[in-house]
Amino acid sequence: MSSTASGKNGTWRNWGGTVAARPAREVAPASVEELAAAIRRAAEDGLKVKAVGSGHSFTSIAATDGVLVRPQLLTGIRHIDREAGTVTVEAGTPLKRLNVALAREGLSLANMGDIMEQTVSGATSTGTHGTGRDSASIAAQIKALELVTADGTVLTCSEKGTDEERAVFAAARIGLGALGVVTAITFAVEPIFLLTAREEPMPLARVLAEFDELWTENEHFEFYWFPHTGSTNTKRNNRSAGPEKPVGQLAGWFEDELLSNGVFQVAQWVGRAAPATIPAIAQVSSKALSARTYTDIPYKVFTSPRRVRFVEMEYAVPREAVVETLRELKAMVERSGLRVSFPVEVRTAPADDITLSTASGRDTAYIAVHMVKGTPFQRYFTSAEHIFTAHEGRPHWGKIHTRDAEYFAGVYPRFEEFTALRDRLDPDRLFQNDYLRRVLGA
């Protein structure tokens, strides 16, 4: 599930198949010093620089025709500080490897997203998040950062530094690759704990009526609504004293692989071949998943395999607007004649203090719409985006959207703080690409 790159013609493609780029050259530095040298050399040659993780963004945020930095040699844990409750990890480390390594040490992140194929720097730079009443974003768990700036300087920053370092820290935790190339991240970690997951179908009408209670009563609440139905599948994760009761291997294979990936893939194929069958398939799909409860260590509860390729748009709306936004989305799907075969995912996050975080300064709910890879998604996504933007929605930086700098200046109160910092750190726009030109302005 990592990014695909063909050596023959030097084309880089992202996981979702939505972006292709042909960099002038690729580098895989084995140290921070090698990276700094590669950045200085690119500047001398008049080439732009972009670092790429595992290609999990659907936008062209990592695309470049200049120098493509691959971080696969900048991986592994540098240091664990049990007293401070932190781990410092190289930027190219996949979340999957970090989670497994931490578990071996009896440690865990407090929260994570539902996919762990991304690199730590790719996930945090685009604002990847899970769901939670008290925590959600991976970037909000960062305690310190190391990055190489446009002139080859290695900069470390944290909330404890100088005024300038604190300004960099506020922005660079979700830096979009615009401020420099992240080389190491220090995360807050805690002793490993158990989560009990309770998954159960619930009518959409009930979820919307009781949303505030479901959010308040659970540390981590999320649900999937199946368009063309009044059905959802809800998931509540809460800390548990144990004992550990993982999903059995056979049940896990049946529910996670066969139903969630295998049968779902077949349903997508049928839906693509005969769109008229989608509402009927949705009725069956929404009833295929039965209630289940299990208890396990965090990454085994928060994350799950995603083998069906898709494209995705996700917007963050103020939490108090989520019920109204979903009602409008449902009404739009019903009157549009659209055939939507992929569930709509709803998660939450508390307000944070990161300049361009989708949850910056406001309690947030996320609504994600998906289409299977290869099906026309523009009409559905455009209609959904009209609804989301009417509620001052902020799109996920790594997922499909059509917004620009003018829009972001209106929905992010600290937008100019970010662009002013970028002017200081990258005045010549070494890290620029078409995507950053659109979302941050020239």
Question: How would the blueprint of this fold be written?
Answer:
Elements: E1 4-6, E2 11-13, E3 20-21, E4 25-27, H1 32-44, E5 49-51, E6 67-69, E7 77-81, E8 86-90, H2 95-104, E9 107-108, H3 120-125, E10 142-148, E11 154-158, H4 163-172, E12 181-188, E13 190-191, E14 194-203, H5 204-209, H6 211-217, E15 220-225, E16 231-240, H7 249-273, H8 278-288, E17 292-296, H9 298-302, E18 310-318, H10 322-336, E19 344-349, E20 364-372, H11 378-390, E21 394-395, H12 405-411, H13 415-425, H14 434-440
Parallel strand pairs: 4-6, 5-6
Antiparallel strand pairs: 1-2, 2-3, 7-8, 8-12, 9-13, 10-11, 10-12, 14-16, 14-17, 15-16, 15-19, 18-20, 18-21, 19-20
Helix pairs in contact: 7-8, 10-11
Mean pLDDT: 91
- Low-pLDDT residue intervals, each spanning 5 or more residues: 1-8
Q: What is the terminal separation in angstroms?
A: 33 Å
Global structural class: alpha+beta
- Give me the count of strands: 21
How would the global form be characterised? globular
Query: How many distinct helices?
Result: 14
Radius of gyration: 21 Å
Largest sheet report:
8 strands, antiparallel
Kindly estimate the percentage of residues that lie in beta strands according to DSSP.
15-25%
Helix content percent band: 25-40%
Widest sheet: strand ordering: 17-14-16-15-19-20-18-21
What are the defining features of this structure?
14 helices; 21 strands; single chain; alpha+beta; disordered N terminus; 442 residues
